[in-house]
Amino acid sequence: MEGAKIGYLGPRGSFSEEALLSFLQRGNGDFRGVSAEGFATIAQAIHACGEKRVDWAFVPLENSTEGQVSMTLDCVAEREELLIYEEFVHPVSQCLLTLRPLGFEQIRRVYSHPQGFGQCRDFLETHLSQADQTVCRSTAEAARIVAESDQAWAAIAPRRAADLYGLQCLEQGVQDNKDNTTRFILVGHCLRELSGLDKTSLFMRIEDSPGSLCRMLQEFASRGINLTKIESRPAKGRLGEYVFFVDVDGYVFAPEMQEALWALKKNRVAIRLLGSYPRQMDIDESR
């Protein structure tokens, strides 16, 4: 994939860039010689991929503390031409960054991405309850804002952002969960080939009737297919209508998977394949 371009949630110094660099450096020969372009929002990165202004989009999908990244789910579901090609789980260590040394009690305002605030909720309540919180489009943008002001402000952002924007790391590892991790996905225009250690992601819309969700789950269970995640989202219609994002173990073209999907379609379940790709945890364990 020499010469390919990957879009991500920028600017430089964001957790998405940190994770992307780690993904590219882990020895994946498929992505040697690629370039990266930062975008202001997750939606912009995904839509740029859908419009083929970049070849891939590398975006956060789920955090172990804060759960699903709703923007990613919604945008991937909207772009029917896109498929998840790979996943990458990356540890996230949040840092409190300032322009100069400050005591916690001196800090008047904290900037970060909503995920950053959510992952550090207890720390902020304990040590910085007096500080206002201002939401930014990325943790890197938060670091840049603090670097460009002489106010008693702080950013919750990666350590790399301190190096890039000339900030001091006042406190490292301020996230509440010390095992904090984020699952990123690489989205593109092609379906991944069978690896033998696969998972399949699906977008489903079911009828609003008694037992419909139970019947959907039973089609997988009766065929020995392990359902690893189910996430509901508003269907963007009437209040109370939902769609479902489902992860199951196995490759999409495995016979038992095809049987389950066919049975669901016969029962008027609308299904869209979001991707079938290697499970990272299984890959790491098999090395």
From TrEMBL:
Metabolic or biological pathway, per its Swiss-Prot or TrEMBL entry: Amino-acid biosynthesis; L-phenylalanine biosynthesis; phenylpyruvate from prephenate: step 1/1
GO molecular function: isomerase activity; prephenate dehydratase activity
Entries under Pfam families matching the protein: ACT, PDT
Sequence ranges assigned to domain Prephenate dehydratase in this UniProt record: 5-189
Site residues by UniProt (Essential for prephenate dehydratase activity): 182
Keyword check for Isomerase: yes
Residue span(s) of domain ACT: 201-278
Record-given protein name: Prephenate dehydratase
Organism: Acididesulfobacillus acetoxydans
Gene: pheA
